[in-house]
Amino acid sequence: MRPFRPSIAVPLALALALASLSPLGQAWNAGPAPVPEAMSEVDRLRIEGYGEAFVRALNSGSEEARRVAIRGIYSQASLADPGLERIAAQMARVSEDLGPVEYHHSEYEVFRRGTFVSHVLHTYVRRKGAKAWNDLQFRLEPQAPHRINALAFIASVTEPVTLPNGPITDPATLEWLDSYINKLCAQDDLSGSLLLASGDRILYERAFGFADAGRTAKATPSTRFNLGSGDKMFTAVAVAQLAEKGRLSYRDSLSKYFPDFPDPVFAGKATVAHLLSHTSGVGEYWTEEYERERGTIRDVGQMLPWVYKAGTDFEPGTAFRYSNSNFILAGLIVEKVSGTDYYDYVHKNITGPLGMNDTGSFVSDGSIPGLAQPLTWEKNGWHAPDRPFRGTSAGGGYSTPRDILAFSRGLAAGRLVKPDTLYLLTTTQNGGLQAPMEYGYGFILNEEGAGASYGHGGTARGINFAFRYFPQTGLTFALFSNQDNGAFDDLRRNVLKLITGKR
After folding, report:
1. What's the chain's average pLDDT?
2. pTM for the complete prediction?
3. What's the mean pLDDT in 270-279?
4. Alpha helices (H) in 132-230, listed in sequence order
C-alpha cells in the first residue's frame, strides 16, 4: 500500500490566487502582538465556526451568500485591503479548484515565538467523493474577536482526526492512541516506535511496521532507529561537561581550535556559543555533492574539509540559520579538548553511564544487528538506499525510545550536567533574531499547552525522529520512524496535542 507523502496540493491557478492576497513566504504576523487573552470554550468554538461558515459559503454556489459570509467572518482590516471583492474572487477560485467539499472540523491554534504571536485556523475539507483531505490554513487577526485576515495556505493531509478530551495519562486516551496507530499502519503502512513516560513510569510503548525494505524484520521496542539530528543534543551535553570542568569556554573563538579556518577574521569572531545556537554563520556542508560522497565517512574529522568548503553566510551573532556544520565543529572541539575520539567520549561520558546500550553512531553496512533501514518510497514500494554511512556529531546515530527515556531522565536528574548547566542548554539563545524556532544550546525549545518543553528532532531521507521532555509534568515523548512517511508527522502532531492539551 502506498503511504501518503505530504505535499502542497495547490493547483497553479489557485496558488497564484492565494499568493496575490497573501504571499506564502511571508510571516503570518509581521510584528509583535499582545499576549493572547484567556480563551473560553465558547470563544474557541466561535472562532472555529468561522471555518465551517467559510465552507458553507464555498458550497453555496451563491455569490451573494459568499459576500454575506465574508462580511461576518473576515476582519475589518481585510475587508478594507484587499477588499471584499478580491476575497470573494479568491473564494470562487477555491470553489472552482476544489469543487463541492465535505467538512470535517476546524482547529484554532496560537503559535508563539518569543514576542511574536500568530493566530491560525485550520479547516479540514475534502472534495466530495475524494480520498485526500485538505487543510485550509487561515491567518487570523491578532486581537479579539480573531476574525480571518486571509486564507494563506492549502495543504494535503491524511484524514484529520477528532482527538479525545482526556489527558494523555487517561487509559481511554491511550486506548484511542493505540487504535489511531492501527489506522495509520493499515492506511499508510507506517513503521516506527513510540514511547510515552511519566517520570520513570512508561505509560505507553509500541513498535509497529517493519525495520527493513524486505519486510522480514518486524520493528520491536529494541529496534535501533536513526536519530537524524538528535545527536546534536549529545554534542551539546559533551561541550557543557567540558565547560563545567573549566576545560573550555562558550566564549572561545573558532580560531582557538581551528587556526587553519579559511576565513581567519570570521574565526576570530565566531564562538562555541554561536556554534551551539546556530548563530555562527558557518555555511551548510550538506550539499548534493556531499550526499554522493557521504558513504565514505567513518569519523568526524573527515567532515572538516566539507565544512571549510561550505564557507560562511553571515557575521556571527547577527542571524539564526540551522547548519549541521556548527555541530561538526563542536564535535571536533570535544575531540581536541578531551583528547578522545568523539564517539568514545559520548559513550564514556553520556550514553554509557546512563545504560544507553542501544545508542551509538553505528556504521549502517549490515554488520550491526538490529538497525532499522532508512526507507524511501519508490514506484513499487519501500527501498533502502544502498550506501553505508556513519553518524557524526551533527547527526545520524541510532537509538531506541527506551534509551531516549534514559537520556531524558538522566538529564533531569543531574546525572550528566548540573541543573544550572541544563538551564543554560534549554534557555533561548537565539532571542532577538528572526528564527523559525527557539533554540538553546543543542536543544529545540517549545512552550505550549502543558508548559515549556525541550528536545530535538531529526529528518532526512528515510529518517524521522522526535523527542520532547516536559519539565513541569515530567513527561517524556519519543517517536521514531524509518520512512519518508507523512503519517509520522500526523502521529507526532496529534500525540503532542494530547500531551499539551492543545486540541
Report:
1. 88
2. 0.76
3. 98
4. 171-188
CA dist 268 and 329 (Å) reads 14
Q: How many CA atoms lie within 13 A of 270 on its CB side?
A: 32
Written as nine digits, the cell of 425 is 542548554
Beta strands per DSSP E along 114-147: 116-127, 133-140
pLDDT bracket for residue 367 (50, 70, 90): confident
CB 468 within 8 A of CB 452: no
**Cβ-contact 250, 455 below 8 angstroms:** no
- pLDDT, mean of residues 300-309: 94
State the pLDDT at residue 293: 79
HEC-encoded secondary structure of 185-214 = HHHHCCCEEEEEEECCEEEEEEEECECCCC
Of all helices (H) and strands (E), which one includes residue 70? helix 63-73
- The one-letter code for the residue type at 213 is A
Between CA 419 and CA 224 the distance in angstroms is 29
Query: How many helices (H) and strands (E) are present in the chain, helices listed first?
Result: 17, 15
Reduced to 3 states (helix: H, G, I; strand: E, B; else coil), residue 425 is: helix
Residues 6+ apart with CB under 8 A from 264: 255
Whether 305 and 328 have beta carbons less than 8 Å apart is answered as no
Do residues 306 and 312 touch, judged by C-beta distance below 8 A?
no
Cell triple for 284: 551548510
pLDDT of residue 6: 35
pLDDT band at 188 (very low <50, low <70, confident <90, very high): confident
CA distances for 212 relative to 344, 374, 400, 461, angstroms: 28, 8, 16, 14
What is the separation of C-alpha 371 from the centre of its chain, rounded to a whole number of angstroms?
Answer: 23
Asked if the model's pLDDT at residue 70 lies above 60, the reply is: yes
Q: Which amino acid is at 192?
A: G
Spatial distance between the Cα atoms of 32 and 267, rounded to a whole number of angstroms? 34
Burial of 162 (0-12, 13-18, 19+ CB in 10 A): exposed
Predicted confidence (pLDDT) at residue 16 exceeds the cutoff of 60: no
- The share of the chain scoring above pLDDT 70, in percent, equals 89
Cis peptide bond prior to 145, omega within 30° of 0: yes
Phi-psi region of 218 (alpha: psi -120 to 50; beta: other; left: phi over 0): beta
